[in-house]
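subagent[fold] <- orchestrator: predict structure for attached chain, return C-alpha coordinates only, no commentary.
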Amino acid sequence: MKQSQPKRVLYASHWWLEEMMGAVAHYAAGYGWHLNYQMCLTGDLPEEWRGDGIITTFSGDIDKMKRFLDAADCPAVSLNTNYPEIDIPRVDIDMEAIGRLAAAHFLERGFQSFAVYTPHSWYATELGHAAFEQSVTEAGHTVHRLIWQEQRGRTRDSWLNRSRWLRRRLRGLPKPLAVLAVEVECPVEVIESCMAESLAIPDEVAVLGVLDMPVFRENTAIPLSNILVDFDTQARAACDLLHRMMEGEPAPAGPIRIPPAGLVTRRSTDTIAATTPQVAKAIRFMLDHYAEPIGVPDAVRVSGMSRTGLYNAFESDLGASPGAILTRIRIDKAKRMLRDTNEKMWSVSEACGFGDPVNLYRHFKDSLGLSPSAYRKQSTQQQAS
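subagent[fold] -> orchestrator:
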Protein backbone atom coordinates (compact mmCIF):
# COMPACT_ATOMS: atom_id res chain seq x y z
CA MET A 1 0.00 0.00 0.00
CA LYS A 2 1.32 3.44 -0.94
CA GLN A 3 2.16 5.51 2.12
CA SER A 4 0.54 8.96 2.28
CA GLN A 5 2.92 11.92 2.19
CA PRO A 6 3.14 14.20 5.24
CA LYS A 7 1.96 17.78 5.00
CA ARG A 8 4.87 20.06 4.04
CA VAL A 9 4.96 23.21 6.15
CA LEU A 10 7.45 26.06 5.84
CA TYR A 11 8.56 28.03 8.88
CA ALA A 12 9.25 31.33 7.10
CA SER A 13 11.42 33.38 9.43
CA HIS A 14 15.02 34.48 9.71
CA TRP A 15 14.63 34.97 13.48
CA TRP A 16 16.49 32.29 15.40
CA LEU A 17 13.99 32.38 18.27
CA GLU A 18 14.55 28.98 19.84
CA GLU A 19 11.59 29.07 22.22
CA MET A 20 9.14 29.65 19.37
CA MET A 21 10.90 27.35 16.93
CA GLY A 22 10.93 24.51 19.45
CA ALA A 23 7.26 24.99 20.31
CA VAL A 24 6.20 25.05 16.64
CA ALA A 25 8.29 21.94 15.96
CA HIS A 26 6.61 20.14 18.89
CA TYR A 27 3.06 20.79 17.67
CA ALA A 28 4.00 20.22 14.01
CA ALA A 29 5.31 16.78 15.01
CA GLY A 30 1.99 16.09 16.70
CA TYR A 31 0.27 16.61 13.35
CA GLY A 32 2.88 14.56 11.50
CA TRP A 33 4.04 17.48 9.35
CA HIS A 34 7.38 17.83 7.64
CA LEU A 35 8.61 21.23 8.91
CA ASN A 36 11.08 23.19 6.75
CA TYR A 37 13.42 25.51 8.73
CA GLN A 38 15.56 26.48 5.73
CA MET A 39 14.95 30.23 6.03
CA CYS A 40 16.06 30.25 9.71
CA LEU A 41 19.35 28.66 8.65
CA THR A 42 20.09 30.73 5.54
CA GLY A 43 18.13 33.95 6.02
CA ASP A 44 16.62 33.50 2.55
CA LEU A 45 13.25 32.28 1.39
CA PRO A 46 13.64 28.87 -0.26
CA GLU A 47 13.53 28.88 -4.02
CA GLU A 48 11.00 26.73 -5.88
CA TRP A 49 9.38 25.64 -2.62
CA ARG A 50 6.02 23.93 -2.92
CA GLY A 51 4.04 22.82 0.08
CA ASP A 52 0.81 22.70 2.00
CA GLY A 53 1.10 25.49 4.56
CA ILE A 54 3.26 28.30 5.96
CA ILE A 55 3.90 29.68 9.43
CA THR A 56 5.65 33.04 9.19
CA THR A 57 7.00 35.85 11.35
CA PHE A 58 7.08 38.38 8.46
CA SER A 59 10.83 38.84 8.84
CA GLY A 60 13.41 39.65 6.19
CA ASP A 61 12.50 41.52 2.99
CA ILE A 62 8.79 42.16 3.54
CA ASP A 63 7.94 42.91 -0.09
CA LYS A 64 9.69 39.72 -1.13
CA MET A 65 7.88 37.83 1.65
CA LYS A 66 4.50 39.15 0.48
CA ARG A 67 5.20 38.08 -3.11
CA PHE A 68 6.31 34.67 -1.85
CA LEU A 69 3.11 34.20 0.19
CA ASP A 70 0.96 35.23 -2.78
CA ALA A 71 2.77 32.82 -5.11
CA ALA A 72 2.77 29.91 -2.63
CA ASP A 73 -0.99 29.58 -3.02
CA CYS A 74 -1.47 27.69 0.27
CA PRO A 75 -2.80 28.55 3.76
CA ALA A 76 -0.48 30.73 5.85
CA VAL A 77 -0.54 31.93 9.46
CA SER A 78 1.49 34.82 10.90
CA LEU A 79 2.99 34.93 14.41
CA ASN A 80 3.76 38.65 14.06
CA THR A 81 1.52 41.62 14.90
CA ASN A 82 3.46 43.89 12.53
CA TYR A 83 2.55 44.59 8.90
CA PRO A 84 -1.24 44.59 9.31
CA GLU A 85 -1.53 45.52 5.63
CA ILE A 86 -0.59 41.93 4.71
CA ASP A 87 -3.91 40.15 4.87
CA ILE A 88 -3.31 36.69 6.31
CA PRO A 89 -4.60 35.15 9.57
CA ARG A 90 -2.59 35.92 12.69
CA VAL A 91 -1.92 34.32 16.03
CA ASP A 92 -0.01 37.05 17.78
CA ILE A 93 0.80 38.50 21.19
CA ASP A 94 -1.68 40.91 22.77
CA MET A 95 0.55 43.98 22.92
CA GLU A 96 -2.21 46.14 24.36
CA ALA A 97 -2.55 43.77 27.31
CA ILE A 98 1.24 43.96 27.74
CA GLY A 99 1.07 47.77 27.87
CA ARG A 100 -1.69 47.69 30.50
CA LEU A 101 0.15 45.13 32.61
CA ALA A 102 3.34 47.20 32.52
CA ALA A 103 1.46 50.33 33.61
CA ALA A 104 -0.21 48.49 36.48
CA HIS A 105 3.18 47.14 37.62
CA PHE A 106 4.75 50.60 37.79
CA LEU A 107 1.69 52.38 39.21
CA GLU A 108 1.45 49.80 41.98
CA ARG A 109 4.99 50.76 42.93
CA GLY A 110 4.12 54.43 43.19
CA PHE A 111 5.85 55.84 40.12
CA GLN A 112 4.75 59.21 38.79
CA SER A 113 7.33 59.67 36.01
CA PHE A 114 7.20 57.31 33.01
CA ALA A 115 8.89 56.69 29.68
CA VAL A 116 8.87 54.22 26.79
CA TYR A 117 12.05 53.48 24.84
CA THR A 118 12.71 51.90 21.46
CA PRO A 119 15.14 52.66 18.61
CA HIS A 120 12.52 51.96 15.92
CA SER A 121 8.79 52.11 16.57
CA TRP A 122 7.07 49.15 14.95
CA TYR A 123 3.30 48.74 14.68
CA ALA A 124 3.27 46.17 17.50
CA THR A 125 5.47 48.38 19.66
CA GLU A 126 3.11 51.30 19.18
CA LEU A 127 0.14 49.18 20.26
CA GLY A 128 1.94 48.41 23.52
CA HIS A 129 3.03 52.01 23.99
CA ALA A 130 -0.48 53.36 23.36
CA ALA A 131 -2.07 51.03 25.92
CA PHE A 132 0.69 51.86 28.44
CA GLU A 133 0.21 55.59 27.88
CA GLN A 134 -3.57 55.33 28.18
CA SER A 135 -3.35 53.55 31.54
CA VAL A 136 -0.74 55.98 32.85
CA THR A 137 -2.72 59.01 31.61
CA GLU A 138 -5.89 57.72 33.27
CA ALA A 139 -3.91 57.61 36.52
CA GLY A 140 -3.06 61.30 36.09
CA HIS A 141 0.49 61.09 34.72
CA THR A 142 2.28 61.54 31.40
CA VAL A 143 4.63 59.32 29.42
CA HIS A 144 7.86 60.55 27.80
CA ARG A 145 8.49 58.97 24.37
CA LEU A 146 12.13 58.01 23.87
CA ILE A 147 11.89 56.99 20.22
CA TRP A 148 15.31 57.33 18.60
CA GLN A 149 14.12 57.09 14.99
CA GLU A 150 11.59 59.89 15.56
CA GLN A 151 13.94 62.21 17.46
CA ARG A 152 17.44 61.73 16.02
CA GLY A 153 16.91 64.38 13.33
CA ARG A 154 19.92 64.40 11.00
CA THR A 155 22.16 62.54 13.45
CA ARG A 156 23.66 59.43 11.86
CA ASP A 157 21.91 56.24 12.95
CA SER A 158 24.63 54.39 14.87
CA TRP A 159 24.79 52.54 18.16
CA LEU A 160 27.16 55.13 19.64
CA ASN A 161 24.99 58.11 18.67
CA ARG A 162 21.87 56.38 19.96
CA SER A 163 23.62 55.55 23.22
CA ARG A 164 24.72 59.15 23.74
CA TRP A 165 21.22 60.39 22.98
CA LEU A 166 19.61 57.89 25.37
CA ARG A 167 22.02 58.76 28.18
CA ARG A 168 21.23 62.47 27.73
CA ARG A 169 17.47 61.88 27.71
CA LEU A 170 17.53 59.63 30.77
CA ARG A 171 19.68 62.11 32.64
CA GLY A 172 17.19 64.92 32.01
CA LEU A 173 13.92 63.17 32.95
CA PRO A 174 12.30 63.45 36.41
CA LYS A 175 13.24 60.75 38.91
CA PRO A 176 12.29 58.20 40.01
CA LEU A 177 11.55 57.14 36.44
CA ALA A 178 9.79 53.99 35.20
CA VAL A 179 10.86 52.85 31.71
CA LEU A 180 9.03 50.28 29.56
CA ALA A 181 11.22 48.84 26.79
CA VAL A 182 9.09 46.53 24.64
CA GLU A 183 11.66 45.50 22.03
CA VAL A 184 13.61 42.56 23.40
CA GLU A 185 17.14 44.06 23.36
CA CYS A 186 16.12 47.54 24.53
CA PRO A 187 16.00 47.05 28.35
CA VAL A 188 19.70 46.17 28.27
CA GLU A 189 20.45 49.41 26.40
CA VAL A 190 18.57 51.37 29.08
CA ILE A 191 20.46 49.60 31.87
CA GLU A 192 23.82 50.22 30.17
CA SER A 193 22.96 53.91 29.73
CA CYS A 194 21.96 54.20 33.39
CA MET A 195 25.20 52.56 34.49
CA ALA A 196 27.19 54.99 32.32
CA GLU A 197 25.33 57.93 33.94
CA SER A 198 25.60 56.47 37.48
CA LEU A 199 21.80 56.33 37.74
CA ALA A 200 20.76 53.81 40.38
CA ILE A 201 18.55 50.94 39.19
CA PRO A 202 15.77 50.59 40.22
CA ASP A 203 15.61 53.44 42.72
CA GLU A 204 16.26 56.23 40.20
CA VAL A 205 15.33 54.38 37.00
CA ALA A 206 13.26 51.18 36.96
CA VAL A 207 13.41 49.12 33.76
CA LEU A 208 10.86 46.60 32.51
CA GLY A 209 11.27 44.40 29.43
CA VAL A 210 9.19 41.89 27.49
CA LEU A 211 9.72 38.23 26.43
CA ASP A 212 12.21 37.27 29.21
CA MET A 213 14.71 35.83 26.74
CA PRO A 214 17.76 34.46 28.62
CA VAL A 215 20.28 35.84 26.11
CA PHE A 216 19.23 39.40 27.05
CA ARG A 217 18.02 38.78 30.60
CA GLU A 218 21.31 37.27 31.75
CA ASN A 219 23.84 39.56 30.08
CA THR A 220 23.35 42.35 32.60
CA ALA A 221 24.56 42.42 36.19
CA ILE A 222 21.15 43.77 37.23
CA PRO A 223 18.49 41.02 37.01
CA LEU A 224 15.84 42.22 34.58
CA SER A 225 12.10 42.26 35.27
CA ASN A 226 10.09 41.01 32.30
CA ILE A 227 6.56 40.50 31.06
CA LEU A 228 6.28 36.85 30.09
CA VAL A 229 5.05 35.75 26.67
CA ASP A 230 3.50 32.30 26.29
CA PHE A 231 5.29 30.99 23.19
CA ASP A 232 3.91 27.50 23.74
CA THR A 233 0.27 28.62 23.66
CA GLN A 234 0.95 30.86 20.66
CA ALA A 235 2.64 28.03 18.74
CA ARG A 236 -0.12 25.56 19.57
CA ALA A 237 -2.84 27.99 18.47
CA ALA A 238 -0.96 28.76 15.23
CA CYS A 239 -0.46 25.08 14.36
CA ASP A 240 -4.07 24.26 15.22
CA LEU A 241 -5.29 27.10 13.02
CA LEU A 242 -3.03 26.11 10.11
CA HIS A 243 -4.20 22.49 10.42
CA ARG A 244 -7.84 23.53 10.19
CA MET A 245 -7.14 25.78 7.21
CA MET A 246 -5.22 23.05 5.40
CA GLU A 247 -8.26 20.82 5.98
CA GLY A 248 -10.42 23.38 4.19
CA GLU A 249 -11.86 25.50 6.99
CA PRO A 250 -12.12 29.26 6.30
CA ALA A 251 -9.72 31.70 7.93
CA PRO A 252 -10.97 33.49 11.08
CA ALA A 253 -12.36 37.00 10.72
CA GLY A 254 -9.75 38.60 12.96
CA PRO A 255 -6.46 37.91 14.74
CA ILE A 256 -6.18 35.47 17.62
CA ARG A 257 -4.47 37.39 20.41
CA ILE A 258 -2.49 35.55 23.10
CA PRO A 259 -2.42 37.41 26.44
CA PRO A 260 0.83 37.76 28.43
CA ALA A 261 1.58 34.86 30.75
CA GLY A 262 2.41 37.09 33.70
CA LEU A 263 5.21 39.30 34.97
CA VAL A 264 8.33 38.30 36.83
CA THR A 265 9.75 40.97 39.12
CA ARG A 266 13.51 41.06 39.52
CA ARG A 267 15.94 43.72 40.70
CA SER A 268 15.37 46.16 37.81
CA THR A 269 11.86 47.12 39.07
CA ASP A 270 11.98 45.81 42.65
CA THR A 271 11.37 49.10 44.42
CA ILE A 272 8.74 51.49 45.71
CA ALA A 273 9.14 54.89 44.08
CA ALA A 274 9.96 57.74 46.45
CA THR A 275 10.99 61.31 45.63
CA THR A 276 12.47 62.08 49.07
CA PRO A 277 16.06 60.77 49.25
CA GLN A 278 15.76 59.69 52.90
CA VAL A 279 12.56 57.77 52.15
CA ALA A 280 14.20 56.11 49.15
CA LYS A 281 17.15 55.15 51.34
CA ALA A 282 14.87 53.61 53.97
CA ILE A 283 12.90 51.69 51.33
CA ARG A 284 16.08 50.31 49.75
CA PHE A 285 17.16 49.12 53.21
CA MET A 286 13.79 47.40 53.70
CA LEU A 287 13.96 45.74 50.29
CA ASP A 288 17.49 44.49 50.90
CA HIS A 289 16.84 43.23 54.45
CA TYR A 290 13.13 42.33 54.62
CA ALA A 291 13.93 38.69 55.47
CA GLU A 292 15.81 39.78 58.58
CA PRO A 293 14.23 40.77 61.92
CA ILE A 294 14.27 44.48 61.11
CA GLY A 295 11.71 47.09 62.10
CA VAL A 296 10.94 50.79 61.81
CA PRO A 297 13.74 51.84 64.22
CA ASP A 298 16.26 50.31 61.83
CA ALA A 299 14.77 52.23 58.91
CA VAL A 300 14.91 55.46 60.95
CA ARG A 301 18.58 54.86 61.73
CA VAL A 302 19.47 54.20 58.08
CA SER A 303 17.55 57.24 56.82
CA GLY A 304 19.39 59.72 59.00
CA MET A 305 16.12 61.42 59.99
CA SER A 306 14.25 61.56 63.26
CA ARG A 307 11.41 59.08 63.79
CA THR A 308 8.80 61.84 63.43
CA GLY A 309 10.55 63.29 60.38
CA LEU A 310 10.67 59.93 58.64
CA TYR A 311 7.02 59.19 59.42
CA ASN A 312 6.00 62.56 58.01
CA ALA A 313 8.17 62.07 54.91
CA PHE A 314 6.67 58.60 54.27
CA GLU A 315 3.14 59.93 54.63
CA SER A 316 3.87 62.87 52.33
CA ASP A 317 5.69 60.79 49.73
CA LEU A 318 3.77 57.50 49.79
CA GLY A 319 0.65 58.08 51.89
CA ALA A 320 1.68 55.28 54.24
CA SER A 321 3.82 54.74 57.34
CA PRO A 322 7.25 53.06 57.27
CA GLY A 323 5.77 50.05 59.08
CA ALA A 324 3.00 49.70 56.50
CA ILE A 325 5.52 49.82 53.64
CA LEU A 326 7.73 47.17 55.30
CA THR A 327 4.69 44.90 55.72
CA ARG A 328 3.70 45.52 52.11
CA ILE A 329 7.18 44.51 50.92
CA ARG A 330 7.08 41.32 52.97
CA ILE A 331 3.58 40.40 51.80
CA ASP A 332 4.61 40.96 48.18
CA LYS A 333 7.60 38.64 48.64
CA ALA A 334 5.38 36.04 50.35
CA LYS A 335 2.83 36.21 47.52
CA ARG A 336 5.57 35.42 45.00
CA MET A 337 6.80 32.46 47.02
CA LEU A 338 3.28 31.09 47.50
CA ARG A 339 2.53 31.54 43.80
CA ASP A 340 5.81 30.29 42.35
CA THR A 341 7.07 27.63 44.80
CA ASN A 342 5.83 24.72 46.90
CA GLU A 343 7.64 25.85 50.03
CA LYS A 344 5.97 25.10 53.37
CA MET A 345 4.37 27.95 55.34
CA TRP A 346 7.21 27.90 57.88
CA SER A 347 9.75 28.44 55.09
CA VAL A 348 7.69 31.22 53.49
CA SER A 349 7.24 32.95 56.86
CA GLU A 350 10.94 32.87 57.69
CA ALA A 351 12.11 33.82 54.18
CA CYS A 352 9.84 36.88 54.10
CA GLY A 353 10.56 38.22 57.58
CA PHE A 354 7.29 37.24 59.28
CA GLY A 355 8.99 34.81 61.64
CA ASP A 356 6.25 32.21 61.98
CA PRO A 357 3.09 31.11 60.09
CA VAL A 358 0.78 32.73 62.65
CA ASN A 359 2.25 36.15 61.93
CA LEU A 360 2.14 35.47 58.18
CA TYR A 361 -1.52 34.40 58.44
CA ARG A 362 -2.50 37.52 60.42
CA HIS A 363 -0.89 39.95 58.00
CA PHE A 364 -2.32 38.14 54.96
CA LYS A 365 -5.84 38.24 56.36
CA ASP A 366 -5.51 41.91 57.29
CA SER A 367 -4.08 42.89 53.90
CA LEU A 368 -5.79 40.57 51.40
CA GLY A 369 -8.81 39.22 53.25
CA LEU A 370 -7.74 35.60 52.76
CA SER A 371 -5.25 33.16 54.25
CA PRO A 372 -1.86 32.30 52.69
CA SER A 373 -3.08 28.80 51.80
CA ALA A 374 -6.23 30.22 50.17
CA TYR A 375 -4.09 32.67 48.19
CA ARG A 376 -1.86 29.80 46.98
CA LYS A 377 -4.89 27.75 45.94
CA GLN A 378 -6.43 30.72 44.12
CA SER A 379 -3.16 31.43 42.29
CA THR A 380 -2.81 27.79 41.25
CA GLN A 381 -6.34 27.76 39.85
CA GLN A 382 -5.71 31.00 37.91
CA GLN A 383 -2.49 29.65 36.39
CA ALA A 384 -4.23 26.44 35.36
CA SER A 385 -7.16 28.22 33.67
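orchestrator: received. Logging for downstream: The longest strand covers residues 113-118. The chain has three domains: 8-92+231-261, 95-230+263-269, 277-384.
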